[in-house]
Write a structure and sequence with these properties.
single chain, binds alpha-D-galactopyranose, alpha+beta, 13 strands, Alpha-Beta Plaits, Ribosomal Protein S5, domain 2, 389 residues
């Protein structure tokens, strides 16, 4: 990166920042329903090598989108611009972070490099947002409470990019911790770290290599269905979110939801939230088998009731379920393509990769990609020699 920076921007004094991607162990499509999620940050992520300028110019270059060249804009002109493509994420962060207490009065030259596969549902966009936030905080010499930064990242997605996503991705990336998952209550933003002490198991990320096409509009549709369910339940219940319901509560009042599809969407949100809380209990009790069963049930619910899996994710997860040494497997993230995860006994991993890889290729006609997930720390400044390319 140092060499590329020099070539693009000239030799300057730079600082290096990093924000990881995330997997979600369980608790899918529950964040915007006031439920629980249980994500963890991986060691893949986005690096930003940055130098301050003296004028108001911001110059951004990504090694992942070299064909887009240097994208430039002024600190005085921070509107969304389609032509600015990926650079709208950092631009949105600058726009919403800037305030009287948080002055951003000189521009920057920034080189980005990410090793999270794009479109894989491992939150590459949230990782660009948060690495930009951490960079601005350090270069501009103010401090921002990390949860506030996380909320600003979500605002960029919601208001700048137009995706009504919840807070899980930015929260995980901003607050992630090596060796731990974060159980987050998205209603109150209370959270706790739960050690993922997997001594004899590995978490495997399985990439369908299908990009998440049309995912934004379908995502927004799911969210609307859940809002409608809450509205109809409010005829007899005083709830604000589906996350407030137990399974029994839902079964008693589900007749208030008129349309069968909307009822199934709501059912997923309620049951998935409860499964997430139970999964943490299982983990704390050392019952990893039980944790795995809850992961499997999560996938079935996302396939049958929430309908966000698709044939690629189903093919991977169903192949994973057939293998020896698999404790649990499910899609992770928004769905509609992207990645799944599996917890696999370490001594069975080689067979697992071979069998699942072969089955997937036979069914889909192209390969899946596999990674072992190491759970690393959240967003932070790095030493210059921690650069990886
Ligand atoms: C995406 C969104 C998150 C969350 C997941 C589904 O990753 O960005 O807020 O809703 O989908 O759990």
């Amino acid at each position: 990166m140092n060499e590329t920076f020099g070539r693009i921007f000239g030799e300057k004094e730079t600082r290096l920042f990093f924000a990881p991607g995330r997997i979600n162990l369980i608790g899918e499509h529950t964040d915007y329903n006031g439920g629980h999620v249980f994500p963890a940050t991986i060691t893949y992520g986005t690096y930003a090598l940055a130098a301050k300028r003296e004028d108001h110019q911001v110059n951004l270059y990504s090694m992942n989108f070299e064909e887009k060249g240097v994208i430039s804009f002024s600190l005085d002109e921070l509107a969304f611009d389609e032509a600015h493509d990926w650079a709208n994420y950092p631009k949105g962060m600058i726009r919403y972070l800037q305030s009287d207490e948080r002055k951003i009065d000189t521009g920057f030259d920034v080189l980005y490099f990410g090793n999270i596969p794009n479109g894989a549902g491992l939150s590459s966009s949230a990782s660009i947002e948060i690495v930009t936030g951490v960079m601005l905080e350090s270069l501009c010499n103010w401090e921002l409470d990390r949860v506030e930064m996380v909320k600003i990242g979500q605002k960029v997605e919601n208001e700048f990019m137009g995706v009504n996503s919840g807070i899980m991705d930015q929260f995980a990336i901003g607050k992630g911790k090596k060796g731990a998952g974060i159980l987050l209550d998205c209603n109150t933003l209370q959270y706790e770290y739960a050690p993922l002490e997997l001594e004899q198991e590995k978490v495997i990320i399985m990439n369908t290599n299908k990009r998440r096409e049309l995912s934004d509009s379908k995502y927004n549709e799911r969210r609307k269905a859940c809002d409608l369910a809450v509205e109809q339940l409010q005829q007899e219940l005083s709830i604000e979110t589906l996350g407030e319901l137990t399974e029994e509560g839902f079964e008693t009042y589900k007749h208030l939801i008129e349309c069968d599809t909307v009822r199934r969407r709501a059912k997923h949100a309620v049951y998935e939230n409860r499964r997430t809380v139970k999964a943490l209990e299982a983990l704390k009790a050392g019952e990893l088998d039980r944790f795995g069963e809850l992961m499997n049930a999560s996938h079935v619910s996302l396939r049958e009731d929430y309908e966000v899996t698709g044939k690629e994710l189903d093919a991977l997860v169903e192949a994973a379920w057939q293998q020896k040494g698999v404790l649990g497997a499910r899609m992770t993230g928004a769905g509609f393509g992207g990645c799944a995860i599996a917890i696999v006994k370490a001594d069975q991993v080689d067979d697992f990769l071979q069998q699942v890889g072969e089955t997937y290729e036979k069914e889909m006609g192209y390969e899946a990609t596999f990674y072992v997930a190491d759970i690393g720390d959240g967003a932070r400044e790095l030493q210059k020699d921690e650069v990886i390319v």
